[in-house]
Amino acid sequence: MTMQTIAIKNNQSIQVSSIPELSYAEFFALNTGLINESPEKHCVNYFGLADNGRIKLFCCIADDLEHIILLSSCVVSFEEALPSFTAKLFCFEKFEREIHENFGIKYSDHPWLKPVRYPFDRADQQSNIANYPFYSIDSEELHEVGVGPIHAGVIEPGHFRFICNGEQILHLEIQLGYQHRGIEKLFLQKHDLSQLATLAESIAGDTVVGHSIAFAHVWESLCGFKSAREIDFSRTVALELERIAVHTGDLSALCTDIAYQLGSSVFGRLRTPIINFMQEWCGNRLSKGLIRPGQNRYPFTHALAERLNQVLDAFKPDFVEMNTQLFNLPSALSRFERTGVVSVEDASAIGTVGMAARTSGVNRDIRSSHPHNLYPELGHEAKVKRHGDVYSRVQIRKNEVIQSIGYLRKLINDLPVETPSMALLSPNAGLFALSLVEGWRGEICHCAITGSKGELIHYKIKDPSFHNWLALALSVRNNEISDFPICNKSFNLSYCGHDL
The CATH number of the domain where 12 resides is what? Predict the structure, then answer.
């Protein structure tokens, strides 16, 4: 850390004016240097904000060893062509492509400034889905296979363009940006707190708890609110329940993709009592309505604790037995092992987060590096694998479910005392706030900036899928195209979390 940055903790707010404003040359050298100097540092957010005809850039670098986030800023004009961070460190490529797409900022040496999302207010309105610049190879021996954007069932729209030599995939390009709700803009337009909390629940439908907690933490930080233990307890329990439910459902889906009907049925059945418990708790199986800033609308009672113990008692033995059978099935292992490999070098270089990083030996988990709620008490240790294949991603899910059950047992054996709900003050003026949450998929980051009256003037959301879609594209190289479904499902990335 130098005087060129200011350090904050997770879920802390500071005055925007206290964030050092550097020249672009200083800004460039500082942030690329921070990433280069240690594998324990990574970029959690990098975005721009329109500022009197220019663009103010904010870069947020997490130091996982020191448990701090280093902030710096820079003001640039639309006219100048900037040297790109990406040319030096590839983990910045998606951030800079988004800045270019949103504001039209030019980079002199970015390898490929292709569109990220096609937002309605993008700088270049001539850029659209129809003229997306797909990578192509002119060859009589190779062929292209297009999948999507319309998929069977309820999956969301995304286009996958394969370049193949026979059945072997040489290259996969993933094009997203087919639908938008304009969520980041809606955060600035809505002023009722219940509306804002509902927006947070809608960022990614399979990560209601993760994104709702991130929003609640940001809002509470802006208001100077300190949550009671009861609130932290409920949020920690809900986050681990969401992790169990989604990991179990993903194991079912992976079994479906290898035609293992028993695993598909059993894991699918096991997911149901977990999400049904959430409905008993708050009235919604996806936990909508449960997390609200400054209050605990649905206190976790002794009756709920007894009920959850019963659910886990029935769940765990069947879950363990089904995994034992799955991992002893030669036909399953032949599909999982050494399929869809992402090397530790690639995972680190492209900035993967969460489960996708940990399966390739990159220990990146906000619950231990920037802990929130009751995770400091749990002493969380991340589950890490080394091989980076589908099998590792399946094992991570199994191991994290078992770990989450242990956390829940520990938590519900010591219920906090219920405290009265407190009214929140309005956000304070001129603040920058940042929240990191380890959702089931990985690192969620929400950033907010308030104006002179405490109103939101910028809200930036980063779902872990923003980092990890490229890992999926790399994982299928040199695999057969028939292995794409299990590679895809082993990551289970979010379309809507990307197309905000």
Answer: 3.30.460.80
